């Protein structure tokens, strides 16, 4: 079982969302990242090298970007965004990875 941690950036990203949206995202994180966060699934994929994170989790229209430390079993959530079409938004502003 992996521990889940949030960076200060990810906490700020989460705070931007409404409470109901935040609950959907947190439930998705708990359900998908607590066990086997490095197994590729329909909603979880390894990303090409970028400055944000190694992995992406799709929770409905939201995206959770995270890194995994296998040695100590920690999932570090780096950022949380909203995807509309091909655009990715962090705290209401369009931004790439």
Descriptive notes:
The protein has a single domain (3-94), classed as YaeB-like fold (2-Layer Sandwich). Helix content is 25%, strand content 38%. It contains two helices and seven strands. The longest helix has 15 residues, at 19-33.
Provide a quick synopsis of the model.
The chain has 97 residues and is of the alpha+beta class. The chain has a single domain, classed as YaeB-like fold.
List the helices and strands and how they pair.
Blueprint: E1 3-6, H1 8-16, H2 19-33, E2 44-46, E3 55-59, E4 62-69, E5 74-84, E6 87-90, E7 93-94
Parallel strand pairs: 1-5
Antiparallel strand pairs: 2-3, 3-4, 4-5, 5-6, 6-7
Structural class: alpha+beta
Q: Could you tell me the mean pLDDT?
A: 95
Task: Assign the CATH class.
Answer: Alpha Beta
- The amount of helix comes to 10-25%
Order of helices and strands: EHHEEEEEE
What's the structural domain tally?
Answer: 1
Rg, nearest Å = 12 Å
Give the count of helical stretches: 2
What key attributes describe this structure?
38% strand, 2 helices, 97 residues, alpha+beta, 7-stranded mixed sheet, globular
């Amino acid at each position: 079982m992996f521990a889940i941690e949030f960076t200060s950036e990810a906490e700020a990203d989460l705070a931007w969302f409404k409470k109901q949206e935040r609950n959907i995202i947190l439930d998705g994180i708990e359900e998908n990242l607590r066990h086997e966060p490095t197994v590729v699934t329909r909603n979880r994929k390894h990303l090409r090298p970028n400055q944000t994170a190694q992995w992406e989790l799709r929770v409905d229209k939201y995206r959770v970007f995270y890194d995994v430390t296998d040695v100590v079993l920690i999932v570090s959530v780096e950022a949380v965004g909203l995807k509309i079409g091909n655009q990715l938004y962090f705290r209401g502003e369009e931004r790439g990875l």
